[in-house]
Amino acid sequence: MVRKIIVIGSGAAGMTAASSARKTDPDAEITVFTKDADIAYSPCAIPWAIEGKIAWDSVVMHTPEHYSERKGIKVVTETRVDSVDDSAKTVSVAGKTYKYDSLVIAAGGKVFIPPISGTNLEGVFVVRTVRDGKRIQSYVKEVEKVVICGAGVIGLEVAFVLSELGKDVTVVEMMDQVIPRIADSDMAVPIQEYLEGKGIKFILNAPMQSVNGFGKVSSVTAGNEEHECEMVIFATGVRANVDIPKQLGFDIGQLGGVIVSPSLQPYKDGRLVRDIFVAGDLIQCESAAVAGPTMSQLGSSAARQGAAAGKNAAGGKALYGPVSSPWVSVIGEKEIAGTGLSLGLASWYGLDAVCGKADGLTRARYYPEAKRITVKVLADAATHRIIGAQILAGEGATGRINWLTSAIMSGTTAEDFLVRAENAYCPPTSMVKDTVISAVEDLCEKLK
Amino acid sequence: MVRKIIVIGSGAAGMTAASSARKTDPDAEITVFTKDADIAYSPCAIPWAIEGKIAWDSVVMHTPEHYSERKGIKVVTETRVDSVDDSAKTVSVAGKTYKYDSLVIAAGGKVFIPPISGTNLEGVFVVRTVRDGKRIQSYVKEVEKVVICGAGVIGLEVAFVLSELGKDVTVVEMMDQVIPRIADSDMAVPIQEYLEGKGIKFILNAPMQSVNGFGKVSSVTAGNEEHECEMVIFATGVRANVDIPKQLGFDIGQLGGVIVSPSLQPYKDGRLVRDIFVAGDLIQCESAAVAGPTMSQLGSSAARQGAAAGKNAAGGKALYGPVSSPWVSVIGEKEIAGTGLSLGLASWYGLDAVCGKADGLTRARYYPEAKRITVKVLADAATHRIIGAQILAGEGATGRINWLTSAIMSGTTAEDFLVRAENAYCPPTSMVKDTVISAVEDLCEKLK
């Protein structure tokens, strides 16, 4: 009998799940339902597409036709799944009922917009889908002053790009620093200063209070002051889209995501649900840095979860373990990356964190175009385990943050990291001692 | 009583040992004896200095004056240590005797030149010291045809640079591939092809038989054929310089290096020698990839060993563990890197290796200037532990090879690596799934 697999959602988690299921079971009947018009696109690419550096076409990795012809996967776009019946094993879509043997729920996240007035005015945008990006690109041509609400990495990437396009950009952030929560202020301040050097203004400690205007945006009120603008972009993050899991009575975690087993199955009243797998922005993960829950709403995480969920849905066996959630953002000539816990998150989890930090270069001192790099590494004062790291650099942050991620994932202590850490050396690509190692040396000194 | 520390050698190991000893004991009397004229220089930088990309001045990191004024370290250049008396705890230098409390032997390596005729002719060079490099730079101006003997990374870096300077370059190699021993042929062939595309010729499987000429070089004989040239550069590697350890009767290992404890102390008839520490190209290390000895003749290794030896010599406590010896070389637009064992080395150690391999890009597919990257990862068929990796890429090899190095150092299996591996993602710096992870996925498939 042919296995019927239904996937809800067409983001990184959903499409990877469908492909992974196909790889595991060549005969399965696989159908993806998605409310989106474009599928398999890279939301992380939207800032550069707005800038014009990459074409919109290229942001969409594959079309529904590609999946149908190459992989025998049916993708039904612009179609919302109304409900799921996990006893009958059916999904209900636009009045029709479809039977499944396994179901993957990869319904993603919902853009969070603060509950204030004026967010429905013309000139208010979010950064989530390709359509959102195209609308921003088109609308921004006619305006001068833009306010970005949210100084997370997406907000800053968009701020930089719009500033490069000649716009007058102001970033409003309710917290007291840019890239709050995941970056420490000493690592984030240089990014803010860099952007201020490009003419971008920042209003920190200022919750957005209202968007103002008649019909269209004319200003925002933030931090009790009114700021004129013609366009507002909310880059205020996503919340897990748990509509269907809630409807099904699945257990929701402390952070608002669906609680899942290592096989990515949800729970109902504490009991594992069979034949349903959940992946992507809506699940709650276990942290590798600390015994506790975390949300890992990253494209790279979604792809890994989708691969495991799809394999399991097709009768294979894959486990998804605790996460360190490494991230990297490119803002003009700067790269900022992080993994595991920041100081703020460590304190949230009740850990006493100790920091080591080092400045260095990405190439030998004398080699042309060496860029500055700062590495910060955090350890738990009690166990000396590495629990987090952040890197600010002109180049080369990604490989290094993956390296530090593997230390967190393995529960490595700072001292043990130092005994085992070696780095490749060649003047055009590195210093004789990598700054990562210098930072951990500093950390070990501080831990004494 | 002031501790007297003597260091023999002024390379990465010796100068790092001196600095590390100073950091550990602010009052010690520290003297470095070196036969070299320039100290604390970066031999790895010589190819780019020959090219003119970096200044010779900048290759020398610090002068003897710098060490004397800034660190209170006395550096005696162009002075060979004749002998050491480890009972009297003295070194004999140019007829004078100096007392030590601790001694660091960092005498480095000797350039290996094959025992053939003609190697003393005018026009024959080695690539080791700043003086060698300057002589090559000066002599090459007057010649057209250059033969490089040895297709290791230094040989290829120099070959590329001389070819860029407009010279007719031929590389002679006794093995059947470029970068033999440490790189597998499937990873090395693309480098050879790239250099052939630049006009460089290769004669493989051809031991150098003689350098020919009257007074100066006019040809070489290799692979039973004569090849005209006006200049020959030997890049045939270094051998441990064990003159002093041999004189002292220290135990020498199977690979020709001094056997040392984790504290970097040598042995004499199996017994640990007190107050002497050995670091750099002359020691034999333990491999982290396999239970066996290895030589780790890298600048980065020398610096780590020097730091530990210097600390111990000054009364501190530092251990030096097994090595994976990551390396990276930049040859024109290509980066090639490796860590742990190649297929050839694995077989030499009697391991049955299984390989995984993946091709990818260094940025998102659609992002401008994404470079190709190939990652190969080796595991031990018996234990599934990762024992080696190689990367060929247009950029970003260094951070990734350090990442894989940490897996080897921790004894991670391929399967475990996959469960724990996460990568940061941003279109300008990475794919959503890093090629390192794809290669290990392939490896896990092969291991099934």
Q: How does this structure look, described?
A:
2 copies of one chain form a homodimer. Helix content of chain A is 28%, strand content 27%. A 5-stranded parallel sheet of chain A has the order 3-2-1-7-21. In chain A, strands 9-16-10-11-12 form a 5-stranded parallel sheet, with helices on one face. Chain A has a 5-stranded antiparallel sheet with strand order 24-25-28-27-26, sandwiched between helices. The first copy, chain A, is built from 13 helices and 28 strands. In chain A, a hairpin with a 5-residue loop joins strand 27 (372-380) and strand 28 (386-393). With 448 residues, chain A is α/β, with parallel strands linked by helices. The relative contact order of chain A is 0.12. In chain A, helix 1 (12-24) runs parallel beside helix 9 (299-313) and helix 12 (414-420) runs antiparallel to helix 13. The mean pLDDT of chain A is 95.
Number of helices of chain A: 13
- Mean pLDDT across every amino acid position of chain A: 95
**Shape, per Cα inertia axes of chain A:** globular
Strand order of the largest sheet of chain A: 3-2-1-7-21
Helix % of chain A is 25-40%
Structural class of chain A: alpha/beta
Percent range for β-strand residues of chain A:
25-35%
Q: Using CB atoms under 8 Å apart, which protein chain pair has the greatest interface?
A: A-B, 67 and 67 residues
Oligomer: homodimer
Instruction: Outline the biggest β-sheet of chain A.
Output: 5 strands, parallel
| DSSP E strands of chain A, number | 28
CA(first)-CA(last) distance of chain A: 63 Å
Cα-based radius of gyration of chain A, to the nearest Å = 23 Å
| Low-pLDDT residue intervals, each spanning 5 or more residues of chain A | none
